[in-house]
Amino acid sequence: MNFGPVTGGPGGPTVFDPYTLPSDDNVNPYTFCVELKGSQWLLQKGKMIAYYGRIEFDGVGHGRFDRLLRTSFHSPLHAGDWVVAEGQGKMLLADRAYDVNSYDLDEGNLTIRAGNLLAYQPSLALKQSIVPGFLTLIGTGKFVAASNGPVVFMEPPLRVDPQALVGWADCPSPCHHYDHGYMSGVLGGIRSLTGIGGSSGEEHQFEFVGAGTVLLQSSEALMAERPVGTVGAEPGVPGAGAGHGGHGGQGPLGQLGVRMPGQLGDFQRRLGL
Amino acid sequence: MPFREINSKMVEAQIVPGQTLYSQRGAMLAYRGSVSFTPSITGGQGGVMGMIGRRVANEQTPLMAVEGSGTVMFGHGGHHVQVVNLTGETLYVEADRLLAFDGTLQQGTMFMGSQGGVMGMVRGQVTGQGLFTTTLKGHGSVAVMAHGGVIELPITPNRPVHVDPQAYVAHHGDVRNKLSTALGWRDMVGRGSGEAFQLELSGQGAVYVQASEEKL
Amino acid sequence: MLAVDLTGDAVKAKNGSMVAYDGQMAFKKMTGGGEGLRGMVTRRLTGEQMTVMEVQGHGTCFFADRASEINLVGLHGEKLYVESSNLLCTDAGLRTGTTFTGLRGGATGNGLFTTTVEGTGQAAIMSDGPAVVLRVSAQYPLSVDPGAYIAHTGDLRQSFQSGVTFRTLIGEGSGEAFQIRFEGEGLVYVQPSERNTVGGDI
């Protein structure tokens, strides 16, 4: 009798202990090991799968971390989703068996879908992006992000399906691109109003131009996101002011009251756009 | 135009003027250049295509025609993507597993029942998939989706392969399929009534099997 | 996906996990009873039955379940503890049984019973993503998220660790987070997923 794995699986399983686990590197494509030497990392809740050593986990917002938050955490809406890990040891991070990768920023900035970010060093500052549902990391340091399938890096100009977008670095914000041909004309109008004739599902993309890098994941299945509330209702703040309802501000299709595939969907509902 | 596999879940295709590529609607991840995505109701190849289009439309996995000039990346739902390059033979595949394929391939539908007696009817019941299976024939590439990894099992005349109908993805070559209800199989292996059948493939060719009993 | 080449011998496998085979195979259903199998079969308190089949024949048999990753564990007389839903396939010669692990189940409502596999041979266990194997030794205890735990071997003591403080600004999710703490000598298999997390919020 002969057992053999056909796909995946380690040939002969490697056994890790605190010495052989990598320091701030991937154990396998789906697991990342962070070493703490008295230092701190911020991580999203539920992403720690195991640890060696003495590590304490505290919710952000707990008094001890006031100073840390002042420098590294500027996203009050997401405060409930984050914990601070502090101590000595090695911990493993993973997220729903999705691909996990670390990225180094050097005096840079990167904007990432909130659900994809797993952990980051406090030397980075986390801020909410103007684009709802996205977070921006600024500064120098390492962060860990998950993606459904390996992340693919692309250079602009590029149009991206909103659901395949993981994030972007150094680019100006993406803008919406609507397929003009699809919406124009009588047939287009009927289609968008009634759905008769079907949509190609690709009438709306995010368009990137200029210098920078766009990060894509191979799947259109969005990572689950926790509701995080809304930003305050101020004039000029996109996505501000929950609960005024309606479909304003979604472009011509939104005004028709038709939710096209690929629109912001959950963000839209969550933020009351 | 062959697909370039970027990773196990994403493929890239070059679109050149004058050539059409069909893909499942909503499967475009990103593109560069001037490319149009048109819902394909009646399809490119007359009646046959229309048949696929209609059939598929009922299952809410309609196709779109991709034309223009540029580069398009396809992927869907985090499913694994298997690229099959056809050199004249026929690929049999469930329409909702088609991610994208060359427009030059000759499309058709086959009533599974015509080949294996009760096969078609039973298969439809078993998997919840239709009675029809899409066929693609000619020279070109097809990107097929599967839940979990895919393995290709060769079928040779004296070595038939038995497959769980729900793990079956596609097959090509000169292959006869037969639904067998091997004695005891129903009780032994089936979790419910569904898995009481096994699909026997014999002849010369290959079958693609996914590492899961889940449909897409 | 797991490929098993059989030359007249047999394996035990989770019911319905066969996805393809070539050659000649005979499938035999094994239900409640006999050689400790009962445990594996009827361990669920909910009344849901896990059934096991025995596959015997000549040829290659392919097993898979819900696109899970498959990890092979070679046993040389020691005992493997695994959640029964994570056990895909074993050599027919391995003994399977059940142990009561009330502690861990206490809070989660899950895993009150764990399947044990004992003997010499190979077992295939499933995980959501490839498992990482972590060594536990006297000076290196290990804490694991209950949702990421799949299996362990060796002489390990499990305990609930609730010394993890968790407080938040807005009080959401506040409370204690639980981890399983392993002490002793052995190996722990964890999966890169917290999909089934019931006790941990970290």
Describe this structure in words.
Chain A: This is AIM24 family protein. The complex is a heterotrimer of chains A (273), B (216) and C (202). With 273 residues, chain A is mainly β. Chain A has five helices and 17 strands. In chain A, the strands form two sheets. In chain A, strands 3, 4, 5, 6, 7, 8, 9, 10, 11, 12, 14 and 17 form a twelve-stranded mixed beta sheet that branches. A three-stranded antiparallel beta sheet of chain A has the order 13-16-15. The longest helix of chain A is centred in the C-terminal third of the chain and has 10 residues, at 185-194. Chain B has a single domain, classed as Double-stranded beta-helix (4-Layer Sandwich). Mean pLDDT of chain B is 73; it is low at 42-60, 113-131 and 183-195. By secondary structure, chain B is mainly beta. In chain B, strands 1, 2, 3, 4, 5, 6, 7, 8, 9, 10, 11, 12 and 13 form a 13-stranded antiparallel beta sheet that branches. Chain B is built from four helices and 13 strands. Chain C has a single domain, classed as 4-Layer Sandwich (Double-stranded beta-helix), CATH 3.60.160. Helices cover 6% and strands 57% of the residues of chain C. By secondary structure, chain C is mainly beta. In chain C, strands 1, 2, 3, 4, 5, 6, 7, 8, 9, 10 and 11 form an eleven-stranded antiparallel beta sheet that branches. Chains in contact: A-B, A-C, B-C. Chains A and C meet through strand 1, strand 2 and strand 5 of A and strand 1, strand 4, strand 8, strand 9 and strand 11 of C. Strand 1 of chain A pairs antiparallel with strand 1 (2-14) of chain C, so a sheet runs across the interface.
Query: H/E series of chain B, N to C?
Result: EEEEHEEEEHHEEEEHE
What are the secondary-structure elements of chain C, in order, as H or E? Answer: EEHEEEEHEEEEE
Main sheet of chain B, how many strands, which sense, barrel?
13 strands, antiparallel
Query: In terms of structural class, how would the helical and strand content of chain B be classed?
Result: mainly beta
The structure class of chain C reads mainly beta
Shape of chain B: globular
CATH level 4 superfamily of chain B: Mitochondrial biogenesis AIM24
Q: How many domain modules of chain B?
A: 1
Percent in helix of chain B: 10-25%
Multimeric state: heterotrimer
User: Count of DSSP helices of chain B?
Assistant: 4
In whole angstroms, the N-to-C terminal distance of chain C is 31 Å
Could you name the CATH class of chain C? Alpha Beta
Let me know the average pLDDT of chain C.
Answer: 73
Tell me the name of the CATH homologous superfamily of chain C.
Answer: Mitochondrial biogenesis AIM24
Indicate the proportion of strand residues of chain C: over 45%
Quote the CATH topology of chain B: Double-stranded beta-helix
Structural Rg of chain C: 18 Å
